[in-house]
Specification:
Layout: H1 2-9, H2 12-26, H3 32-46, H4 50-56, H5 61-91, E1 95-103, E2 106-110, E3 113-115, E4 122-127, E5 132-138, E6 142-151, E7 163-166, E8 172-180
Parallel strand pairs: 1-8
Antiparallel strand pairs: 1-4, 2-3, 2-5, 5-7, 6-8
């Protein structure tokens, strides 16, 4: 299977898809926040049973808590210090931070991750060499107006497009501007009048 995977990674389209999937996972289920929250949810279930467990099997509750802390430390060290640098070293890529901000009521989907106004500013890690999707999603009564780059350098063919494929060469902060529909200017040019 190693030869097959290596051959697939030599295909540019597969490589971009593979790395974008990795970016999605590292910003969601492999993130420190998600992993620690999941560990804590399991500990909350197990913790009430531990006194009976330690009594039955001559265990020590404090030793169990130390083991839990060891797991927590492992997760934090792995996701903060090893995952992204490991990908950078293995595939000769450069990690960048992409920050999303939203003005008005709307959502942004970045590489499959939905960012809502209550999550901003949202920052994820991506790779400078790999293009990825960015989409403005109109929700409620606000209409998408335009994209704005606050930090970094980002070229758009048209900053009013709902969907973009972007490939920043460094960390960027991108703002999606939405305005209420009733304030959205519409001009009709009719020939003949």
């Amino acid at each position: 299977h190693t030869e097959i995977m290596q051959a697939l990674l030599n295909n540019d389209e597969f490589f971009e898809t593979y790395m974008n999937r990795w970016s999605y996972l590292q910003n969601t289920v492999f993130s420190c926040d998600f992993a620690i929250a999941h560990l804590d949810s399991l500990i909350d279930i197990i913790d009430p049973e531990m006194p009976r467990q330690t009594d039955r099997w001559n265990g020590d509750y404090n030793s169990w808590q130390n083991n839990v802390q060891t797991m927590r430390d492992f997760i934090l060290q792995r996701c903060e210090d090893e995952m992204v640098p490991g990908i950078e070293d293995c595939y000769d890529l450069t990690a960048i931070d992409v920050t999303i901000e939203i003005v008005g009521e709307g959502e942004v989907v970045i590489n499959g991750i939905t960012v809502t106004p209550d999550m901003v500013p949202w920052t994820g890690t991506f790779f400078a060499e790999i293009p990825f999707d960015l989409e403005a999603v109109e929700t409620g009564g606000d209409a998408f107006q335009f994209w704005e780059t606050l930090v970094g350098d980002l070229d758009y063919d048209d900053e009013t497009e709902l969907e973009l494929v972007i490939n920043p060469d460094g960390s960027v902060t991108i703002v999606a501007h939405f305005i209420p529909m009733e304030e959205f200017p519409i001009t009709f040019n009719v020939e003949p009048e």
